[in-house]
Amino acid sequence: MKFGVFDHLDRGQVNLTDHFENRLKLAEIYDVHDFHAYHIAEHHGTPLGMACSPSVFLAAVAQRTKKLRFGPLVYTLSLTHPIRIIEEVCMLDQMSGGRLELGIGRGSSPYEMGYFGVNAENSGKLYIESFDVVMMGLKNKMINFEGEHFHFKNVPIELECIQKPTPPIWYGMSHPQAVPWAAQNQVNIVCNGPGAPVKAITDRYREVWSDTFSQDCGHSEPLMGLGRHIVIAPTHTQAYQLAKKGFDAWYKSLQHLWRANGNPMTKYSIPEDFDAAYRGGMVLLGTAQDVAEQLSGEIDKSGVNYILTRFAFGDLSFDESKYSLESFAHEVMPLFSSSEVSA
Length: 343
Fold this sequence. Notes:
Blueprint: E1 2-7, H1 16-32, E2 37-40, H2 54-64, E3 69-72, E4 75-76, H3 82-95, E5 102-105, H4 110-115, H5 124-139, E6 142-146, E7 151-156, E8 169-172, H6 179-184, E9 188-191, H7 195-213, E10 224-232, H8 236-260, H9 274-279, E11 283-286, H10 288-302, E12 306-310, H11 318-337
Parallel strand pairs: 1-2, 1-12, 2-3, 4-5, 5-8, 8-9, 9-10, 10-11, 10-12
Antiparallel strand pairs: 6-7
């Protein structure tokens, strides 16, 4: 089992200078405790995400860490020119000594896309073309491409990544029907929501993976991740109070643009009601032993091999997030590496 971190960098109660610095300090702790990777979101015009330019923040992460892998989850390809994505990906991979993890996606908010003049309903082909161009540019020194949205003839690519042919690719997934493309292209996936439905995705992924690569010993199984909010405190009551405080503030930011446009989300994979999210296993809280037992159950339900922890969210303070993180690293992670925990 590997452990990573997902972070919206959603706005809390401190000023932005301290907000960014606190997240970088947490990244240094992830690095020390051998978390596999630190993944951040891209959002625009909303308190849900302050890393609206993921590459800018990740350049700082590259300099503040030594071993920690990191990357966007995701670059919203429909909002950025693919040549700029290629160049930034190559720069980050070089600046970090080959530690970049490359998440790609179409984008989930029609309001954020609209700010950039992109029609969300018609963005599918734009996303696909952009992805094809990015992959071409990472693998070749010249781009020649003819599509509906992009036309390139003999465009030179001077930069390159350390990791060949590309950094590891990541994609968010919510339904088994998208699995074959991901498995056949060795794409790592991330899921949210209840563990049981995720099992259908991980089972299907392993089935397609086995059919595609079973005879090729050079391919190791990609990571299949599950995101979970985690709060650890000295007592269950303290953890519950902190988790509810942070979760409610985070969800308010999640809904911000939707509510501002009179269209609150009703079908998100994580319920807005905190107690429902906790009962459903999407929030893990309590003492370190409580969290270990809850996490073991979620891994069994979902079949994942990668957990994306969330220690910093909503209006949790730096010290509150740091306590959860260090307790998890010292008391929970070793149990899973040695298979000593049981639900």
